[in-house]
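Hi R.,

Quick one: here's the Radical SAM protein sequence you asked about.
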Amino acid sequence: MSTEPKVTEKKVVDFVIKTSKFCNLRCRYCYEFNDLGNREMISSTQLDQMYHHIADYYGALDHPTEINFVWHGGEPLIHSPEFYWKTFESQKEIFRGRSVSIINSVQTNLTVLDEARLQLLKTGFDSVGVSLDLFGGLRVNQSGRDSVALVLKNLDRLQAKKIPFGCITVLTQLNRPYIEAIFRFYEQMEVSFRILPLFKGAFDSQHIGFEITPYEVLETYKTLVDLWFESDRFVMVHPIVEHIEQALRHRCDRSRVTLYDKRQWESIFLVNTDGQIYSYADAYAGPSQGNIFTTPMETLLNGKAHQLVIQAAEDRLRSTCHHCPYLGSCDGYPVAEGSVEYNEYDEQGAIRCIVTHGILRHIEERLDQARQAGMAELPTEHFTHWEKSALSCAV
Ligand code: SF4
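And here's the predicted structure, written out as C-alpha cells:
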C-alpha cells in the first residue's frame, strides 16, 4: 500500500461581485447603462453574510478550493479604498482555518486613481484588470468625452509603481478594423489582454451602429491567431491561447479529455448588488438562483432554480456539441455557458457554434500549412514543453 500522501486537485470558483452600479463613465454599450447613476452599494454586513455562506460550503469540501472574488461595478474604484481594506480584513477572519485560498481581483475603468487607490491596487488586490478599447470612442464620460487618453496616462502610473495588470478590450464594429493595431499595442507593452465580443445590452436598440455578428467575431479571432503565430514575442491574448492549446490537444493528446460539468462544479457566479446570484450564461437575463446574503450556498446549489439552469446548460451542450469533432479537447463551455451571446441558433433552436468551432478549424489549417513549410513558420519558443511535444506531433 502506498504511503504517499493523497494529492487532491485544487478547484477554482469565481464570484463576480457587483459592488454597486454607480459609475463615472457612460460607456455606450454598458449592460448596466440604466443604473449607472444609482449609488446604492453592497454593505460590509451583507458581504460578511456572503463570506460566511461561501466559507461554510467550500470550506467543508474534501479538496482545496481557490475562491476568486472579482470586484466589479459600475466602477469599483469609485468607492473609498477603506471599504475594500475593511472587507479584506473580514475575509481573513471569516475564512481563517478553512481549506480555501482567497484571491481578490478588480476590473476597473482606471479613470479614478489617486495615491490611496494606487496603494490598494499594489498591495490590496491580487490582480488588476483594466477595461480599454483603444479605438471606437464608446468608453465616454457623461459629457461624451472619450476616456482612452486618461486611461493610457493612468496605465503609465501603474507601470511606474510596478503594479501588474491585464486588459479587456470589448470588440465592436468600431474597433474591429483596428485589431492589428490593438494587438501591436499590447505586444509592445508586454501586457496580457482578452478580446471580449460585445455582450448583450441594457435595452434593445443600445448597440445600433456598432453591433458585431458571430462571423465578424470569428474573422477577428482568425486575424489574432495569425498575428500570434507571426509575432516574435509571446503575447498572452485570450481566448486565442486557450484555443491554440485545444487545437494541439485535439491533434495529439486526445487522452486528456475534459468536459464541462456544471452539475459537478460551477466555476463562476455573478452576485448582484441585492445579493441575487446568477450563472454566467444567465446573468440578469435568466433566473436568479436565490440570495446569497440570506441563503446558505448549499441551499442555493440544491435549489430548483439552480437545477433548472444546470439542465439548460446540459441541454445546450448535448444538442450542439454532441457530434463535434473537437468535443473532449474543447470542454463545451463556450456553448454550455461561455459565449451563448455570440453564437447563432439553428431551426431546432440549437446553438450553432460558429466562433469556437471556426477558430479551432482555422488553427488546424495553420498547423497544416506549418507542416508543409517544415514547421519553420511556427514560433516554437512561445510554447511550453508539453505544447512543443504536441506541436511536433501536430505538424
Ligand atoms: S460545438 Fe463548439 S463548444 Fe461544443 S465542443 Fe465543439 S467547438 Fe467546443
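The pocket of iron/sulfur cluster is lined by residues 320-321, 324, 326-327, 330, 332, 334-335, 353, 356-357, 360 (CB under 6 Å).

Cheers,
M.
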